[in-house]
């Protein structure tokens, strides 16, 4: 079966059995999410940070401490993602295919929206998505804008960039603004310098993509923002998905569409 | 000056000076908000409850512990509302015009969206708002639907009801769905019995209004929901605004409009 045709539970079973692969293109129409696992002692600051920075940290679901499933994820959050990254005191210490051995009763899991959802909508609207065309990861940049801090959490806004033909910028804004739960409308159109982005060819995360004549760089708030903030605040333990190896949820992409 | 023409800071100065009056019609175009003040120890459960029940608990702003202003409220949250209600262990113990004497460094203030914002939009769209016509408080009902609990917090969904002429129900849905930060689209149209509401003339909160022939009762998630949950969970201290005596914020109603 092609990955796009797997149901979320079928895809999760494959990952649970050991398959370790990026999830782009998996389970078409089903929402993929960023995972962040934190001890309960750090959970309030993160939830408040997300409330204050909803564009970059759209929270889709939060577990009770110790719970290993979520209302939109009827699987096991410890085993059913293809790969995890473990951070201690803000530093990446290992990448694992299973975090059962690290599990504790005080761990809270956050599922955070990711822009895969609106990229499908952009394509449907005839707007090109360059990094998909080029088979690359989306380019992401640290900006000169600070997020609103919350408790001990602070960090810069991180943005993703997609080059959009000038005559389709309005369409791209219109389409993505209907998905506020997965970053929504762009935070900036054109003028990378104003965001403190000096060189589009040197992204801080992901890979550079081609910007063609007549195209405008359009910037969206990015799901790497919460990770950047969590890393700066250096909690004793934090676990995230490995980049590109997302949680495949039981929510439909269409659930996030506003009228 | 008429109350509608007061700027938010002028209105807050009047309340700070002792004016004790409901805020309906004050500072037209500026967002009014429900206030809930809780000790930091209870704040995570409430913030999570709100995240899980966004229709009834749309959080507009949250302070750091001890802060007396908020990003959308450039005043003093202890003095600048017309009246406050103080609850201890879930029981209402007093109503005050000023809570400075109760203030502590661990208190967190939540500002929560209220439906005044979308009522103005309904009127502009030509949809009648009966309780405004009749000069009454909106009728509110406890339903048989439980909110998603969070930690120690649980409670029933509370709804407000507005009778809408059948030919304008679609307009009312369309208009209010553009305001997700202030309860958004209805949760139920018609059929009060299915929500466990036996008698529209006997609301649990507020006042009954006339339902005319050809009108359909339309139900929206209500800002009383968080108070009902907080009261059931009986925190040692909680402070709210007195019903109808809202926080007048520096946010514009139009800030909450989605495309």
Automatic annotation (TrEMBL), chains A, B:
- Which protein are we looking at? Putative hydro-lyase GCM10020366_46830
One short Pfam name that applies is D-Glu_cyclase
- Presence of the UniProt keyword Ribosomal protein in the record: no
Question: What EC number(s) does the entry state?
Answer: 4.2.1.-
The parts of the chain that form a coiled coil are none
InterPro entries assigned to the protein according to its UniProt record, in alphabetical order: D-Glu_cyclase, Putative_hydro-lyase, UPF0317
Q: Which UniProt keywords apply?
A: Lyase
UniProt record similarity statement: Belongs to the D-glutamate cyclase family.
Q: Does Cytoplasm show up as a keyword for this record?
A: no
């Amino acid at each position: 079966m092609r990955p796009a045709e797997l149901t979320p539970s079928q895809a999760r079973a494959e990952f649970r059995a050991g398959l370790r692969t990026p999830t782009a293109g998996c389970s078409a129409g089903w929402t993929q999410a960023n995972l962040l696992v934190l001890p309960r002692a750090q959970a309030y600051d993160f939830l408040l940070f997300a409330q204050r920075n909803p564009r970059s940290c759209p929270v889709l679901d939060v577990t009770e401490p110790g719970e290993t499933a979520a209302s939109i994820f009827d699987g096991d959050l410890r085993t059913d993602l293809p790969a995890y990254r473990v951070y201690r005191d803000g530093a990446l210490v290992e990448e694992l295919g299973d975090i059962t051995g690290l599990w504790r009763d005080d761990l809270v899991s956050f599922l955070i929206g990711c822009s895969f959802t609106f990229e499908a909508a952009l394509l449907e609207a005839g707007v090109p998505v360059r990094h998909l065309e080029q088979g690359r990861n989306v380019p992401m940049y640290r900006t000169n804008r600070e997020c609103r801090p919350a408790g001990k959490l602070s960090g810069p806004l991180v943005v993703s960039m997609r080059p959009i033909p000038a005559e389709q910028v309005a369409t791209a804004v219109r389409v993505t603004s209907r998905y506020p739960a997965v970053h929504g409308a762009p935070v900036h159109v054109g003028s990378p310098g104003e965001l403190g982005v000096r060189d589009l060819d040197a992204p801080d995360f992901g890979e550079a993509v081609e910007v063609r004549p007549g195209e405008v760089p359009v910037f969206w708030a990015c799901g790497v923002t919460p990770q950047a903030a969590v890393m700066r605040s250096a909690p004793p333990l934090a676990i995230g998905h490995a980049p590109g190896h997302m949680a495949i949820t039981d929510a439909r992409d269409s659930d996030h569409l506003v009228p």
